[in-house]
Amino acid sequence: MNPIIQPTLFVHDRGQMCNNILQFGHVYAWAREHEYRALSMRFSYKYQYFHICHAPWHTFIVYALAKLAAKTHLLPTTDFDKEPAANEEGKSRLLQRHRFAWIDGWNVRFPYLFLKYLDEIRALFAFDTAVEQAAQLRMMPWLTRNNCIRLGVHIRRGDYASFLGGKYFYDDETMLRFIGQFQALHPEKQMVVYICGNDPHLQPTTYERAYPDIHFVFPQGNPGEDLCVLSHCDYLMGAPSTFSLVAAMYHDVPIWWIPSRDATLTDDSFSHFQSLFQQIEAYHTL
Hints:
With 286 residues, the chain is an alpha/beta fold. Helix content is 39%, strand content 15%. The protein folds into two domains: 8-124; 130-283, Rossmann fold. It is built from eleven helices and nine strands. The chain starts with 7 loop residues before the first strand and ends with a helix.
């Protein structure tokens, strides 16, 4: 098909970086299945850490022109929040209304197609070489040691103080207890914990004093580098968040979304990307 006239969806991604990855992935998968092209507006100018940011048509000029066209109604808009559809068939009909359209809203979801094209989505969001190098530098020398187990911990605070009434807002004492439970499951291993998060007041010494036999690393990179670090860990844990979920997506790292403050970690607590991805709505309701 001529790339100039190929039907195209301009995806107006919502929220932060990993929400954008998942939202775009749904539309991309639908587009692949129906011979459309999907362009991410957010990754055309922001979060320049991934291969998709250098893909054809992903430029600031295309973003600016498409946004202007949508604002002036030259490009029709399909808003999945204003025009909700009850099932995937209905959502598909909304996308097929126009050969060229600006796509908006959280509720565009095609889980089956997302998983069908998961390898392609992973490739689109593969990290740039500079991001991989920075992440590996932060993980050394523990990245290649044999008797070492690498736990990635994502600490999500900030907006989680009020999100769902603070249901998933976990303080340092709670996170330290879970880290101790993980250590008890692997007593024969040298444990390294990489802690990434959005709390600027996090105190590394609080963790280092609690477990002096654990090597703690606080990468403090940009969002792409922190995501890359977590993706290379052996296990992941954290509050239910798309950041840790996407980190698990790259290499299918076992992940524990901590369900409550009084939970207990066991070997059976860990899940994988595909399972959590399909249950994501259940974790984000009271």
